[in-house]
Amino acid sequence: MRILHVSDSYLPRLGGIEVQVDGIARAQRAAGHDVAVATATPGHAGGPPPSSPYPVDRLVLPMPWELPVGRSVGALLTHRKPDVLHVHAGAASPFAWRAVGRGLDVGLPVVLTVHSLWGPLSRTAYRALFTSWSRRHGLVVTAVSEAAAYPVRRVVDGRVPVRVVSNGVDLERWHASGGPVPPGGGPMHVVAVGRLAPRKEPITLLRVLRDVAAAVPIRATIVGEGPARARMERFLRRHGMETWVRLTGRLDQPGVREVLAGADVFLAPAARESFGLAALEARLAGVPVVAQAGSGVADFVRSGREGLLGRTYADLSAALVTLARDPSLRHRMAAHNRATEPLRVTWPRVLEEFADCYEQAAGVPLTPARWA
């Protein structure tokens, strides 16, 4: 089958959407499909492009701050002749939304994957689009978690199918090796991984750490890079936290795995986390997760089993204090995480669910010949 993925954001920019688009494309390519990616994100300036097993078309328009507006995909659809158009959208994705409309205009089956949690402004903006699109056949919407699907279903109001298809992950790459590590002495090591951007609530993260440290001994490592780093560094200096909170900057996967191998707890404080790929990777590495109960993390972390969930800033602080004071509870959660795997996130399962979505959008079964 010929599959064209369309995404405003793509590598070399690094984030959840970018990693997932590349992961899905690679997995489908390995399964024998003819896959390509179209994006409005520029490549590496002045350097060679990263190696890719599939073609990447960068339909970039010169815009201030490299805003991913992008050129029309119309000519590319004629060139690539995809059997299905798989569009990936965040909260604001002008390139992706235009691609959905263009694909429906030419009669292509379109699967739209929503990677973000829609707020009131997004819901208002997209309601008219879905009203227009629902008059045409061939559109199926997926969301990466139940939390992300809820606002989409409110907007769609039954006019378009909405399904939950989890993000995918290579279990072997993140699965903890060896047996559970027994509780040890010293301060509890709290780890957070993610882009240092406002929507990830990095200052909330630091405030939680500050409040917990006033009650119990802890140390923290924060992995990631982004526009909020300077503000975080000022916060650390102002509150005297530099001696026990380390900002590593961006690390590659082996570097992240090394940090997780020494973690006692993973903290994901963002209330508007649509999925939480870094939290999932920590859970696969055997680390208990503390996160928001209303976020996408709740799809693979049950409070009291894989970690602790809360609904407020105070809940997250209390959860960390509980785990710091009860190493045996951390040990039980870590052992459980090492021994169990969330099967919905395996690549074979994710590809199977997307294949069902493609068939639903096409309105007819996709025969084996079309999958060749």
From TrEMBL:
InterPro entries named in the record: Glyco_trans_1, Glyco_trans_4-like_N, Glycosyltransferase_grp1
Keywords: Glycosyltransferase, Transferase
Record domain Glycosyltransferase subfamily 4-like N-terminal: where: 15-173
Span of domain Glycosyl transferase family: 190-338
Listed CDD domains: GT4_PimA-like
GO biological process terms on file: carbohydrate derivative biosynthetic process
GO function term, MF aspect, one: hexosyltransferase activity
Name the record gives this protein: Glycosyltransferase involved in cell wall biosynthesis
Species of origin: Actinomadura namibiensis
